[in-house]
Amino acid sequence: MPKRKDIKRILMIGSGPIVIGQACEFDYSGSQACKALREEGYYTILVNSNPATIMTDPGMADVTYIEPLNVEMVTKIIAKERPDAILPTLGGQTGLNLAFFLMKEGILKKYGVESIGASVEAISCAEDRLLFKKAMQEIGIDVPKSGIATSVEEGLRIGSNIGFPLILRPAYCLGGSGGATAYNKEELGKFLDKGLDTSPVHQVLVEQSVLGWKEIEFEVMRDCADNVIMITSMENVDPMGVHTGDSIVVAPAQTLTAEEYTNFVNLSKKIIRRIGVSGGGANIQFGQNPNNGQIVIIEVNPRLSRSSALASKATGFPIARVATKLAVGLSLPEVMNQITAKTTSFFEPTVDYCVFKICRFTFEKFPKCERLINTSMKAVGEAMSIGRNFKEALQKGIRSIETGRFGFGADGKDKITDEELLRPGNELMKLIKDKIRIPNDERLFYIRYALKAGLSCEDIYHLSRIDRWFIDNMKELVETEEEIKKFRNKHSEDELKIPVELLLEAKKDGFSDRQLSHLLNSKEEAVRKFRKKNNTKNVYKLVDTCAGEFTAKQPYFYSTYETQEEGRPSKNKKVVILGGGPNRIGQGIEFDYCCCHAAYALREEGIDSIMINCNPETVSTDYDTSDRLYFEPLTLEDILNVIELEKPMGAIVQFGGQTPLNLSVALRNAGVHILGTSAENIDIAEDRKRFKQMLEKLKLLQPESGTAFTFQEAKQVAAKIGYPVLVRPSYVLGGRAMEIVYDESTLEKFIHEAASVSGEHPILIDKFLEDAIEADVDVIGDGDTFVIGGIMEHIEEAGIHSGDSAMVLPPYSLSSDILNKIREATYKMAKELNLLGLMNVQYAVKDDKVYILEVNPRASRTVPFVSKVIGVPLAKLATKVMLGKKLKSLGFTQEIIPKHVAIKESVFPFARFPGVDIILGPEMRSTGEVMGIDTDFARAYIKSQIAAGQNLPKKGNVFISVRDRDKRAVIMIAKKLQDLGFSIYSTSGTAVSLEKSGVSVKILPKIAEGRPNLLDLMKDGKIQLVINTPSGRIPRQDEVKIRSHVVLYNVPYTTTISGAQATVSGIEALIKKDLEVQSLQQYHKKAKGKR
Amino acid sequence: MKAILLLEDGKSFTAEAMGACGERIGQVIFNTAVVGYQEMLTDPANAGKILVLTYPLIGNYGCAPKFNESKKIWPAALVIKEKTRISSNWQARQSFDDYVKENKLFVAYELDTRTLMVHLRQKGELLGIVSTEDFETKRLLSKIEAFRKNQKESFLPQVSVKNPVILRKGRSKKRNIAVLDLGITKSITHQLEAMGFNLEIFPYNTQPKDILRHRPIALVLSGGPEEQAGLDKVADNIRALIGRLPILGISCGHQVLAKALGGTVSKLKIGHRGVNYPIADPASYKGEITTQNHAYTVDAESLEKIRDIKITAHNLNDRSVEEIESKKLKVIGAQYYPCSPGLGETNNIFKRFAKMLK
Q1: Quick one: which H or E segment has residue A222?
Q2: What ipTM was assigned to the predicted interfaces of this complex?
Q3: Which residues contact B112 (CB under 8 A, 6 or more apart)?
Q4: Chain B interface, best mutation among A237, A262, A291, by max B CB count within 10 A
Q5: Do B55 and A546 touch (CB under 8 A)?
Q6: β-bridge partners, B24
Q7: What superfamily in CATH does domain B156-357 come from?
Q8: Strand duo A1053-1054 + B2-7: pairing
Q9: Cis, bond preceding A569 (omega within 30 deg of 0)
Q10: What is the CATH number of domain B2-150?
Q11: pTM (predicted TM-score)
Q12: pLDDT value at A756 more than 60
């Protein structure tokens, strides 16, 4: 059916900042959708608050708004742009919910906007628990026994009728947030309370637990002609009870019979028809009783999802692109399959490989939180691997998540040694069994320990309910491992003795050279050499949607050990781009953005781009982003394999974050040409000692520092440079285990704890510049010309990780003198390091002195933000510069100081980690970012806060409680708030100083001492803002309780004085005048006009 | 045990063998379905073939008698990438290994099936030999040559019943359907039975008058192996029944029906073998995804001159004929496998045929 002509302008809603449960997959689907709509000639209007996305690049949509995603702001955009239709299915749960609320409030009707892709009825039917249950029963599909609770009492009643354990699911919630399993009445009450609060419509589904059942998913698409196709089935290795976003997943399903498979397909068709998706896709989750095949439906997502992104990457079928075309009325037979270029999209992909998805967790960032996984999603990222069998895919998958492991154990990093497992004591057996019984992020490795300790497949199945088939495959790996060990060298320098057949078998089962070198007591390099000598080399096979039945025109590749090479490289000039791997805190979408831009730039220069990455959520792993895509782990072995086949002119390592950068020296030593800043200069910047020497040479300041191995040494160093000091163990990434220490006793405690993290490595001690202002600078250079992309001033004071700070561009309080000092220092270092590409410098400014904290000789987290604010694609330019172009010829020779103000604010996953203190510190904990952009600081700030989910009030009550040092500073803030009409609540300590200055304060009792206290008020919605700065390293119990409840009740908060100041000026601006919207294109146009 | 697969063009693959050993020669065909190995092995349409499964992990859910499409295993050999050593499904009664051994099937595993598939795509379906005894290319090639010259043997007598069999007896004579057995599968008979029809299965060479004597209300031509000596004779027999009985031809039976109507068939470079083939009415956007297993297809042009015959569905990948119908002659032919869409449900084609009978 031809595409619709009655609609011309289409509004797309993005998914906002990266949070747990909503990551880059929606940038991937949104970008595909933008392209698909423009291909069909529609005018596209895009709104998203996340500046790090490819979709918000000015060229993707016709008009782009980086504005907060709420009803108010989107209504303004609708009023201004007057779209004919809204496509709500690409922006995750955020986009879907927003569209739903726009409908509920009559906005869509008022402006004549139609919801395409999923009708409002379809959304309601899938999302509203009651409607859903009824619909499923109508078509004869079982749902777990359940009831909808709108109050705790109701929930308890429903629960006692069904029986424990029970699963709780708040309605309209993302990634199972607020979801929980209750085993008894007390837990039920507690979780109901929380769930009702989490759900935007105050509904919680109380459901029969199908814990331990198989979890099977199907990705389904349907067009307006009622054609239905299955993209793929997926089977969760972790059975029901673990959120699918946290589960290990394989595609296709491995343990279903043909009859069961057909039955699932049939049910899926019925479900998508009943829900009424008539131009898009849906993800359907089933539970299946492994003992009798009984099936229940768990949920349906009538939109693009994390699973659909995975299904796309697993099969090569571009679900988002096709879904978008279906949304505008095309039918599946009319949309071509671009991978084969021969068949249409009315075709079910089939695979001849096994796909494995594994999640990346960051429990280490939240040490107080138990490392358990359950129905509330906690993973921050994921990796996908492909193999010709499950074992190969499993081992590649573990390598891909970059937790320092090189496969299914046997890599020298196992917590429990083989010797211990030979004769395991009762205690060890109990630990192993517990770790298998209760889902956690290390379960796989404990299954290996269990197999080694003599537990049978059957035992492990009964503990974990993980299907026996998967466990037996793991057992095969353990057996192969034992086989390999028989050929272990006495001395690591010995020649390898392993028979070539066994070596090949091991490689077919995914063993890495690193594992082999450990098992054989050799070196990784020696194993590689031995392999090559014996012609045991990998080949590349295709992801082609059709298991080889048709010639593939635009396939992508995975490595395996088979007989024939299918990855025939071209003779063109080409460059390898190393991607960033799985998302994690500290390395996320920003780096993927840069990698994509590298690919675009290479295309513009007529050079083939070769992407290596393993993150299925990203745009960089889309089939048409690069010329050739290798879906591979980012380890030395896997990268070298690609490079040896492709023989590129060089590799770009500075865009994928720290992962590829860390490999730069090893790659150079293996003979790979590193494009951009040389590996030597990268090393100068990364090596503490060499860096210090460089700064001394350039006469630049650095906070005083020293190293120590013992407390005695540390004490001396600290005394010399003076407290407070910033201490951290060396060789720990991402600000981990970093702390600010004010006195000797705290130092002693830290050293004691750090010893276990750091081992033989020294403790690093830096002078901490208290109350300094920090700034981030991104700079680009071509070896001759160096241009600053942007100087960003941190809003929070020094001591808070730059990834967690709010930043403003251009700076708002630094003097021009200071800014010039920063510029001078930046250019000096860029020149010294012979910068070729991008570099990021972090500064601290104190007493008119500019200190250099850190230099990262790579694209930083802020590159997409800066690029969007100044309207210059820095990563693209940097790529061209690395290829030999000059900034002069590219037309970028002068720092642009924007006339508008943009603020980057961070978004935190605290709600997922109950009980965790939310204060900011030197350890990065944010998962994503938003941008607020406007003509002045206050408005830009308030937009950034709203976009980050802080619903800042125009009136109401503010609670203020600050540490002694902040008491003076908070007076002005409180006064201002009072003038703006707010009532001030406080604790007795803070109240004294406020009252002295003429602020009238209502004093609240300490939490333990009386009621109603602050917690009660927050619960009743009587507190609209909390200002609370932490009192010290060991915060008072009250403080922590306050701060964790702030997250629970979603009360806007700030934990720094500078944050509070910005917030108050934002509120003032908000009261004065309503916020307005303006597109990025308009901002850029105005900036250009003025220049 | 070591094994080799050698194709007639000289390309060879190494493998391990299990089940039966020795030598097997046949046409090498593939199937791209992820599940359904037991169903494929017991599908008479695969008689004598060397069947290659492109999905690399086989045996995962074991085997059970209920999955048999017929009484025995038909292919000359099965070629796969990896066989699983345990089976895991509540329905499994037997492991894949045991099933294969019990049925004495030659299974070549640990073979690079991806490369083999790509080769077949480029060269077309070829003859091949699997062997655990002889690894000498020249000798193996001459064996293939001898086999080619000797290919007169037909599987029809083997796959078809010897004598008429009443599968389901009902009181109402008005529900009696005759099925000409060219290699019928259980999934077809089950669906017909589920619709309340009484089935009498006839040997492939039954004469028209013998069928009419039983006074069936309709005739179903089953699927089965293609390219068999004797199929033309069957088409000649059927010709006499066109217009006298409503006829439904399935897969190979569809080709026989087309020939009986005066059409011709020709061979595709590579067959359609899998569960993901899109078909649609040439005049509409609505179609369906079908299961297929054939290498021959009815020539569309040959149908043009036949009165009253319409092509009601074609393949969206290569536009080949998938379905023919004549309301006047009361015949329907379906090239694809009209599988049951789900537990206890019937394919649309049977419903359409049933309507024709009213």
Answers
A1: strand A214-222
A2: 0.97
A3: A562, A563, A564, B13, B81
A4: A262
A5: no
A6: B130
A7: Class I glutamine amidotransferase (GATase) domain (3.40.50.880)
A8: unpaired
A9: no
A10: 3.50.30.20
A11: 0.94
A12: no
